[in-house]
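Justification of computing resources. Each target in the renewal requires a structure prediction run like the one illustrated here; the chain below, 165 residues long, is used simply to show the kind of job we budget for.
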Amino acid sequence: MRYNTIRKMDISNGEGCRVSVFTQGCNVQCKGCFNFMLWDKTKGKEWTEETKKLVFSLLEPEYILGISWLGGEPSMWADEITELNKEIREKYPNKTIWLYSGHTMESLMMNDSTKKLLDTVDVLVDGPFIEELKTCEIPFRGSRNQRILRKCGDSFIEASDSEFV
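Resulting C-alpha cells:
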C-alpha cells in the first residue's frame, strides 16, 4: 500500500478531531480534483510497519475520535485497509472509521474486496467529485452528489446535513 500524507489532528474530514490518511493512487480521477497529485499509485510513500505504529500512536489520545481514509482512492488498497481497520477496531473499539471514495456505495458492494472493506467502516462518504456540483456549503463533501452514509447494522443509511450542524 502507498500513502501520501498523514494528518495527526484533522477536523475537516469527518466528525471531531481525527487522524486522516491520504492514500496514493486513484482510479477515478475526477475533473477538477484538488488532490490530483495523489492519482499516480507509484508515487508517495510505502506503508510500513513503522507507518502503522505511527498511526496507532496518533489514535491513542482520547480527543482523537477516529481515523479517516481518503485519497487518492483508498478502495484501491481495500485488502490492506480492511486488515488495518480490523486491528484499529480491536485496539480502539470506541474510535470511528470513515472512508472517502469516489465510487458509489453500490459499486463498492459489487466487488468482494471493497465489500469487505465497507464491512469495517462506520461512515462512507461516496461518489465522484463533480466540478459542476462543487460546494463549500455542505459538511465533509466537495460536491452535492456525494453522500454521507452511516453504517446501520449490515447496511448504510444516508445521514442528513442537520446531523453535522
